[in-house]
Design goal:
This is Fe2+-dependent dioxygenase. By secondary structure, the protein is an alpha+beta fold. The protein contains five helices and 17 strands.
C-alpha cells in the first residue's frame, strides 16, 4: 500500500529544517551504499554536529508520528534515524531495493520506507521517486512538507535531477504488522469507521467495524 501523507511539516517547519541543514555539509552517498548499490547511487548525504542532528531528528520524527494517516497506515514499532539526502545536477539513485535489515541500536526489519520531501517541486527538474509495481511504474514528486510511505519490498529509483536541487528526508520503519496486505486491510477498516462516525455517528455498523479492526490487529500484531 502506497500512502501519501500531506503536510507532515508546515512551511515554517520545512524552513527551519532547511536552515539547520545549512550548518552541516553533504558527502557522497556512495560512502554508505552496499556493494550492489554503489553503481547506481549518485546522491549526497548530510552530516552535522550531534546537536543539529538531534534537532532535525526530533522535529521530523515527532511530526511524522503525530500525523493521523501515518498512525493508521504504518502501525510503527521502531524507526531508523532520518537521513537527509540531496540530489543535484545528474544526481539520483537507480533501481534498487532497500536493505531488509538495518542496524541502529538494534537490528530493525524494514517493512515500510518513507520519503519526506523538503524541496518544492518547482525548484528542481527530474528527481521523481519512481516505483515499479508488477511491471508498471508510478512516479511521485510531492510538495515540500509532504511524505510518502510504501512497502520496503518495492523496487524503486530516483530519476536524475536535471536542474536545481532536491532535498528529502528518508527513514525506514519496522511495523507491528509486517504484511503490507494486512496493513492495508486495517487501514481500510479504520477509514471506513471514521467515515461512519463523521456522517452517521456511533452506529451499530461503527461498533462492528471497530470490533473487527481491533480483533484483526490483536491477531496480526507482532510485539
Amino acid at each position: 500500500m502506497i500512502t501519501k501523507l500531506p503536510q507532515v511539516l508546515s512551511e515554517k517547519q520545512v524552513a527551519s529544517i532547511i536552515q539547520l541543514i545549512e550548518h552541516g555539509s553533504f558527502t557522497s552517498g556512495k560512502d554508505t551504499a552496499g556493494w550492489h548499490a554503489k553503481a547506481v547511487k549518485n546522491n549526497l548525504q548530510w552530516q552535522g554536529e550531534s546537536e543539529l542532528t538531534e534537532q532535525i531528528q526530533t522535529g521530523i520524527q515527532g511530526a511524522l508520528t503525530q500525523h493521523p494517516q501515518f498512525t493508521s497506515a504504518a502501525y510503527a514499532k521502531s524507526m531508523m534515524p532520518f537521513i537527509i539526502s540531496e540530489s543535484t545536477l545528474g544526481g539520483g539513485y537507480g533501481n534498487h531495493i532497500d536493505d531488509a535489515l538495518m542496524v541502529n541500536e538494534t537490528v530493525l526489519r524494514t517493512d515500510i520506507s518513507c520519503t519526506l520531501f523538503l524541496t518544492p517541486p518547482q525548484d528542481y527538474e527530474g528527481g521523481e521517486l519512481v516505483m515499479n509495481l508488477s511491471g508498471m511504474e508510478m512516479a511521485f514528486k510531492l510538495n515540500a512538507g509532504d511524505a510518502i510511505i510504501y512497502p520496503s519490498t518495492t523496487l524503486h529509483r530516483v530519476n536524475p535531477v536535471t536542474s536545481g536541487s532536491r532535498k528529502v528526508a528518508l527513514t525506514w520503519i519496522e511495523s507491528h504488522i509486517p504484511q503490507a496486505s494486512q496493513r492495508e486491510i486495517l487501514s481500510d477498516l479504520d477509514c471506513a469507521r471514521k467515515d461512519i462516525m463523521e456522517y452517521h455517528g456511533k452506529t451499530d455498523a461503527f461498533d462492528r467495524i471497530t470490533k473487527t479492526h481491533a480483533n484483526l490487529l490483536r491477531q496480526w500484531a507482532m510485539t
